[in-house]
Amino acid sequence: AVREALGAGDMALVTRLLGRPYSISGHVTHGRKLGRELGAGPNGGDGFRTLNLRFPHPKPAAHGIFVVRTHGLTAEPLDGVASLGARPTVDDSGRVLLEVHCLDWPAHLGAEGGYGKLVRVELLHKLRDEARYDGLAALTAAIAQDVSQARQWLTSSPHAAHAAERRQTTRDRIQGR
Question: How far is CA 128 from CA 8, 62, 84, 165, in A?
Fold first, then answer.
């Protein structure tokens, strides 16, 4: 039932079935650093920097673009948007990769602060299927739209608010508050 719900992109059902959001864990690896160039402004900026996690299975049960929450980089989880799939616009190898763009990157981590860290990425909500775009400009526009939709979902979703509340309660119990 979980694999079927993942395949359908019904992350709310997946969360109900598992009792927690579906997550993928791994070490952050170096990529091509293309995300830094996509969407970077004329004054510099980091564009759509991503954390790359190799996915060992050639056919993941879930695939597409997701609203995510990443644990392991800082004391608090970081909200973001992620692509789980083969990246058809920029890579013809068919290799599956999880690429996470954290919406608000902590400055104290610096540009290279995520590499080598073990992170857990919760897939909270599916935004859309993966797509092939005609060039990097079209891909950049799609990513900007994904970021906007992720921010909107995170501010309006009862699940997102509940997850933050549940996380606070669990942390308080662990710390004896």
Answer: 11, 11, 11, 27
**pLDDT tops 70 at residue 126:** yes
Backbone φ and ψ for 55, nearest 5 degrees, come out as: -110, 120
The one-letter code for the residue type at 68 is: V
d(CA 173, CA 168): 9
Please state, in angstroms and as integers, the Cα–Cα distance from residue 42 to each residue in 38, 45, 46, 81, following that order. 12, 8, 11, 23
Provide CB contacts within 8 A for 127, sequence distance 6+.
64, 65, 66, 67, 81, 146, 149, 150, 153
Q: Are 70 and 123 in contact (CB under 8 A)?
A: no
Name the pTM for this structure: 0.79
The 3 state secondary structure assigned to 78-109 is: EEEEEEEECCCCCCCCCCCEEEEEECCCCHHH
**146/97: higher pLDDT:** 146
Whole-number pLDDT of residue 44: 42
CA distance 177 to 172: 5
Give the separation between CA 83 and CA 128, rounded to whole angstroms. Answer: 10
